[in-house]
Design goal:
Blueprint (H helix, E strand, L loop, with lengths): L3 E6 L3 H12 L4 E4 L8 H4 L16 H22 L7 E7 L22 E8 L2 H13 L4 E3 L4 E7 L2 E6 L2 E10 L10 E11 L9 E3 L4 E5 L7 E5 L13 H12 L13 E11 L6 E4 L6 E5 L5 H16 L17 H7 L1
Parallel strand pairs: 1-2, 1-8, 2-5, 3-10, 8-15
Antiparallel strand pairs: 3-4, 6-7, 7-8, 9-12, 9-13, 10-11, 11-12, 14-15
Helix pairs in contact: 1-4, 1-6, 3-4, 3-6
The structure holds flavin-adenine dinucleotide (FAD).
């Protein structure tokens, strides 16, 4: 007797978005989480839905657009199930462009200085991942999805009717399994640390837009419990699974942000309210791993979303649920094939 139709491993935004979509389509879902749901990368993120970031690999375009098209519906469904609204925080991004030519800042918001860079205004949303996390949790808890926390996946084997998942808390039998363990997924996925800080929004200089350069971003919180904070991020570090922060890195982020929003240099006007680090699931070509892991079509992988997991979650959930229903993906997944690193993987194993 199977415990569920689909077992999802990892309760970050990717795993839980997939679980909610599968539940919506009538599947019996169990999610296994080695710690507490949504405590890792998915609550460390800045929350930009950065579909138009010129730094994104071009292969992400279709999945990004699919996600953006589904985002409002995704948040409405989360609120319908769990009763917690998740508003978009901002809808404008000032994006630095390649090259150093000075662009007249006429029309740019008050308090903003374009310095030596050229900036473009983009219509793009952001949200607060720390507002989204409890909302997703409430939505999941309002469904029959079984979320088993403190339950670490140890091995996955085949059984006569599906897969047998061994955990520290016993065995789970499922028809199919989806691996969504973020930075803790197998090679070639690696953790890439990002440190961030949140400072108080300066009085009298309302920042209601995102500023993004290749080095830093500034993301204000305008609604909810963190309204009045400005998040400044983020470092990109290969530091194993360490999530420590250090004063020098955070000071450097603040100084770079102040080049464009000079008021952020003023530590009295904008004191530090919080600081943290999270682990992005990184792959060598900066693209996710999405698709079947084996010929038997029992194991699917959905991980490696690196800097864009918040953005890509609703699109990933649709694609994964379609594959599990035997449908074609609506976006071309060839660049995301889990088998593209097989050679490298066998060297590592
Ligand atoms: C500083 C920073 C800023 C970011 N900013 C943005 C942003 O602005 N926009 C954006 O789109 N993205 C952003 N990201 C990226 C985004 O946060 C990630 O891509 C996304 O959270 C990945 O989600 P996930 O569910 O794959 O991973 P996670 O949220 O890390 O979840 C993986 C889960 O798997 C669990 N797990 C691991 N091993 C096991 C096991 N053996 N058994 C069971 N469970 C296991 C973990 O405990 C964890 O809960 C940022 C990331 C960081 C760190």
């Amino acid at each position: 007797m199977l415990d569920c139709d689909v077992c999802v491993t990892g309760a970050g935004i990717i795993g839980l978005s997939i679980a909610l979509e599968l539940h919506r389509r009538g599947a019996r879902v169990t999610v296994l989480e080695r710690g507490t749901a949504l405590r890792e990368a998915s609550q460390a993120a800045a929350g930009m839905l950065a579909a138009k970031d010129p730094e994104n690999p071009v292969e992400l375009t279709a999945l990004s657009q699919l996600s953006i098209a589904r985002y409002t519906e995704f948040l409405v469904e989360i609120e319908r199930l769990g009763g917690r609204p998740v508003p978009f925080q901002t809808s404008l991004t000032l994006q630095a462009l390649e090259g150093n030519a000075f662009l007249e800042s006429t029309g740019f918001p008050e308090g903003f200085s374009s310095g030596k860079l050229r900036f473009q205004q983009l219509s793009e949303w952001s949200l607060d991942p720390r507002q989204l996390a409890p909302a997703i949790r409430a939505a999941v808890e309002a469904t029959p999805i079984r979320l088993l926390e403190d339950t670490a996946v140890q091995t996955v084997g085949e059984s006569k009717d599906g897969v047998a998942v061994q955990t520290n808390a016993g065995e789970i039998r499922a028809d199919r399994i989806v691996h969504a363990m973020g930075a803790w997924s197998n090679a070639p996925v690696k953790p890439r640390k990002g440190q961030m800080l949140a400072v108080k929004m300066p009085h009298g200089v309302p920042i209601d837009f995102v500023v993004r350069t290749p080095e830093i971003y500034v993301v204000p919180r305008l609604h909810g419990p963190r309204a009045g904070q400005v998040v400044i991020g983020a470092t990109v570090e290969d530091a194993g699974f360490s999530t420590t922060t250090d004063a020098a890195s955070l000071a450097s982020l603040r100084a770079m942000a102040a080049e464009f929003l000079p008021v952020l240099a003023d530590e009295d006007a904008c004191p530090v309210l919080d600081q943290w680090a999270g682990l992005r699931p990184f792959t060598p070509d900066y693209l996710p791993l999405m698709g079947w892991a084996d010929g038997s079509r029992r194991k699917l992988i959905a991980t490696g979303h690196y800097r864009n997991g918040m953005l890509l979650a609703p699109g990933t959930a649709k694609v994964v649920a379609d594959l599990l229903e035997g449908k074609e993906s609506v976006v071309d997944l060839s660049a995301f094939s889990p088998s593209r690193f097989l050679e490298e993987q066998s060297k590592i194993d």
